[in-house]
Amino acid sequence: MFYYISFLRPPPTHEYPSSSRITITPQIANDLRTEQFPVAQDIYYAWLRSDPPQAVQVQPRKLCTWKPEGMYKEIPKTKGMGGVDLDNDTGKGVIPVLSMPVIFGRARGAKQERIERIYRISVGGEVKKVKVVEQTSYDLDKKIWDSGIGLSSWLVGFSSSPDDGNGLEDLKDALLAKEGRKIVELGAGIGLVSLTISAVRSSLIGAETEGEKVYATDVESAMPLLEQNITTNAVNFPYSTPEARVLDWDEELPDYMKEEGGVDVILMADVAYNTSSFPSLIRILEALIKLSPEKPPLILMERELWELVKKVGVVFEKVGERKGWTEKGKGEGREVEVWLGRVRE
Predict the structure, then answer these.
(1) Does the reported pTM lie above 0.85?
(2) Closest alpha carbon to 153 in 340, 328, 270, 320
(3) Which of 65, 230, 236, 320 has the fewest CB atoms within 10 Å, i.e. is most exposed?
(4) Pairing relation of β-strands 103-104 and 14-15?
(5) Chain centre distance of CA 152
(6) Cα separations (Å) of 75 from 44, 65, 67?
(7) Which helix (H) or strand (E) holds 229?
(8) What burial letters (b/e) apply to 153-182, b meaning 16+ CB within 10 Å?
(9) Is 67 left (phi over 0), alpha (psi -120 to 50) or beta?
(10) How far is 43 from 45, CA to CA, in rounded Å?
(11) Picking from 19-23, 35-39, 340-344, which range would have the lowest pLDDT averaged per residue?
(12) d(Cα 290, Cα 258) in Å, to the nearest integer?
């Protein structure tokens, strides 16, 4: 399980020029915000200038020692310094957060409704920053989840792992071949998994590669934020840019997908939380498989779909896992499991 620093009380969009402070309420909790970080933790803040010519981060200063019961803390105001960055020194498993810019010089505005998180991934011997914007609301398709982080991390690790005869040669070929591949993510949300695999693919192929497609699909309401995150991270995937497309599981497979004539890999992260959606999801999986029955796609996801997928001939096996934060002396935390589905012949 991962923990996330977030704003219980986000900064305002605007603040009076005469104001000397802004007030925020930090929190450290799991992705559902149902479990607080179990130990006291120092939180540091910094103003991050977002204005040209380039972003500049002011030296971090201690904001507070956060405790599970929470606290309010005022931050001294500095005009024109951009967004507020909250971080800690725990390391692995605790994800920092950055607010949107706070503009001083106008009447006080409403609370901010979006935040940004920055993830660093190593692909092709280069460290890339993946910047992802999410909503502060609890819209399921507009925020990050443990499963997306875990599956993305596993994909990066898999892309640099040796080909050691571990029985995953078919997955290596489907995900990491230098020839063009067709990959679709179902329930992409804010797009972290698609952004990651596109960055990985772009490190392997070139402008001359033909037939390369990565589809980041979800319902219509997810498209604006998904498209924004793709545009923001365009520098990371010059040769394998993900396309944000609507694919509603309750509707027929869209024409753009039928026209592809099949895909190589189906990616899914945290799509199995709502059992009422299982029949629709299984129907979409079956439709995608039938596009190319002679070479059915591989299915990679963060958890098992239990017995239902057997009805369409898919059998899953666990191929990896990613662990988040673990409290010292209290054993391992809950990990994100990665499962590979193959269509039985």
Answers:
(1) yes
(2) 320
(3) 65
(4) parallel
(5) 7
(6) 11, 14, 18
(7) helix 223-232
(8) bbbbebbeeeeeeeebeebeebbbeeeebb
(9) beta
(10) 7
(11) 19-23
(12) 10
**Per-residue pLDDT tens over the stretch 8-26:** 888 888 888 777 677 778 8
Beta strands, E only, the chain: 3-9, 14-15, 21-29, 41-49, 56-57, 61-66, 73-76, 83-88, 94-95, 97-99, 103-104, 114-123, 126-135, 182-186, 213-218, 242-246, 265-268, 298-301, 314-322, 336-343
* Residue 151 near residue 301, CB atoms below 8 Å: yes
Q: Which residues contact 49 (CB under 8 A, 6 or more apart)?
A: 55, 56, 57, 58, 80, 81, 82
Task: Specify whether the CB–CB gap between 127 and 113 falls below 8 A.
Answer: no
The bridge status of strand 242-246 relative to strand 213-218 is parallel
Predicted confidence at residue 15, as pLDDT, reads: 82
Contact 304, 327 (CB under 8 A): no
Distances in Å between the alpha carbon of 49 and those of 2, 56, 57, 102, 260? 28, 5, 6, 10, 44
Q: Which residues contact 161 (CB under 8 A, 6 or more apart)?
A: none
What is the mean predicted confidence (pLDDT) over 310-326?
88
Percent of the chain clearing pLDDT 90 (strictly above): 56
Q: Name the DSSP class of 192.
A: H
Question: Which three-class secondary structure state does DSSP give residue 226?
Answer: helix
- Distance of alpha carbon 97 from alpha carbon 112, whole angstroms: 13
Instruction: Flag the least confident range among 28-42, 53-67, 104-118, 330-344.
Output: 53-67
